[in-house]
Structures are given as structure tokens and as C-alpha cells.
Amino acid sequence: MKPLISLVLALGIASCGTIGIGSNHETTIYNNSADTISVSSDSGIFKIKPDSSLPVNSGNGIAITNPNESCPQPIVTRRPNGPAIFFDVFPGIIFGIVPIVIDAMTNNLYRMPKSYTYSCME
Prior knowledge:
By secondary structure, the protein is an alpha+beta fold. It is about 30% helix and about 35% strand. It has a 4-stranded antiparallel sheet, with no helix packed on it.
């Protein structure tokens, strides 16, 4: 029984991004334009009316489109989850490659920004 408990504790400590630090996959998109925009993510396609916001879940990126051709069509990208990577390497080095593999499988090596404001003033 002790080896099983030790293994569970080791894997729990090793997966910092998954358990301890976590990852932000929810971004609140605020539409600061005069047009209704479309937001496309892993969780679907959403419409956001002018001067309103909507929380959107995505682990890979969010594409924003505007029917007005002269407005930008940005893609909100994810960034590396620095604290999780740091703890996967330094205390996690005791467990070899296991911490990084666990966080990679659970998509917690990256995080989305907490909020994004879309602007087009035309």
C-alpha cells in the first residue's frame, strides 16, 4: 500500500501545471467596436454585440472576425505557462520527464490571457 501512495503523491507533486498552478483556458472577450463580432474557439462560435463581453473557453486560440472588412481580424493566441514549466523542471527533475508529460497531456503547459478587448473605430 505504501508504494501505491508514494506513486500517487509523486505524480501529484510532479504535475504542477495540472494540479497546483492550473491553466487559464477562459478569456473574457470585450467588444469595443460598433459592429457585432464573431468569436470562434474550441468551444464553438459566438456572437458578441457592441459594448458587451462574453467569457470564451479555448485551449488553443480564439479567432475574431468582424463583418466590416476594414477592421482587424485578430487571433488571440496562448502563451507558455511559465510557473508550471518552472516547477515541472526544478522540483520535477527528480521524477524525470513525467511532470512535463502530464502537463502536456492535460494542455496545461500553455494559458490563454484572462481578457482581450477588441477595438475598431470605423
